[in-house]
Amino acid sequence: MIIDQIVSLRVMLDEMEQDIGLDKLSAPEKSIYLAAQAAKSKDGLVQTRDILEHQLTRQISRPTFFRCLKAIQDHGLLKHSDRKKRGEFKVL
């Protein structure tokens, strides 16, 4: 049955997230970090607008988005790029 497959995939995904430490992030933080990973360039840089426009983050309010973006930086998963002070991050 398809629901059994969904449950199996969800358990597997939870285990993988635990393995790399993503389980410590809230759901919106995780969505923002994954969107940053998906939108980053070859040199690991991503623009704030690209994260905001990603499918995983469209439903997150702007205040929550920026609060979570700061939390992700505090977790050491993102940092401001050396090229720009605002609007660009290095995905770690």
Polypeptide structure, described:
The chain is mainly alpha-helical and 92 residues long. Helix content is 54%, strand content 11%. The chain is built from 4 helices and 3 strands; from the N terminus they run H-H-E-H-H-E-E. Strands 1-3-2 form a 3-stranded antiparallel β-sheet. Strand 2 and strand 3 form a beta hairpin. 18% of the residues are buried. The mean pLDDT is 94.
Give a short overview.
This protein is mainly alpha-helical. The protein has 4 helices and 3 strands; from the N terminus they run H-H-E-H-H-E-E.
Kindly list the characteristics that best describe this protein.
92 residues; mainly alpha; three-stranded antiparallel beta sheet; 4 helices; 3 strands; 54% helix
Helix/strand layout:
Elements: H1 2-20, H2 27-39, E1 45-47, H3 48-52, H4 62-74, E2 78-80, E3 88-91
Antiparallel strand pairs: 1-3, 2-3
* Oligomeric state: single chain
Instruction: Please provide the count of β strands.
Output: 3
- pLDDT < 50 runs, ≥5 residues: none
Order of helices and strands: HHEHHEE
> What Rg is obtained from the alpha carbons, in whole angstroms?
14 Å
Characterize the largest beta sheet: strand count, sense, and whether it forms a barrel: 3 strands, antiparallel
Percentage of β-strand residues: 5-15%
Distance between the termini: 38 Å
Helix fraction, binned, reads: 40-55%
Mean pLDDT level: 94
How many alpha or pi helices? Answer: 4
| Order of strands in the sheet with most strands | 1-3-2
Name the shape in a single word. Answer: elongated
| Structural class by secondary-structure content | mainly alpha
